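Researcher: Quick sanity check before group meeting.
Model: Go ahead. Protein one:
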Amino acid sequence: AKARQQAPWRLLFDLKAIRHDELEVLALTSAVQILEESQAMRHCADGYLDQCARGSYILLSVRRKDTGKRV
């Protein structure tokens, strides 16, 4: 499981980013991205690393387009 968590994984569909008005939605496709998101937002997203690496879950990050700030 650790090797899967270290390397970025592929999504089952093409989702680079979704943009609308002031926001964009980004797929988190690596353990590093999920850990950074979890720390920045102070939530438990990092508890889903194994499920994401297996392709069972997809985690998304919502951010302001102008600043990149997570919302």
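Researcher: Fine. The other one?
Model: Protein two, sequence then structure:
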Amino acid sequence: LATSLSVTHQFSAPPSQVYALLTDRAFLDRRLAETGGEDPSVVSLESTADGATVVTRQSIPASALPSMVAR
């Protein structure tokens, strides 16, 4: 079941440094692994002059979901 997610953050670093970090596959792999999901992966990372698109995937065991969702 795919779900779209939009998040807004504010950073104290210059935009170029934040962009470089958020488009660094090694950083994204580490960050995703820290979330605790099963089989985390960066499915795709596309960076162009217009911006970046990052697609990630991870599994969450049914035991970690609220009962109304885990049915």
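Researcher: One line on it for the slide.
Model: The chain has a mean pLDDT of 88.
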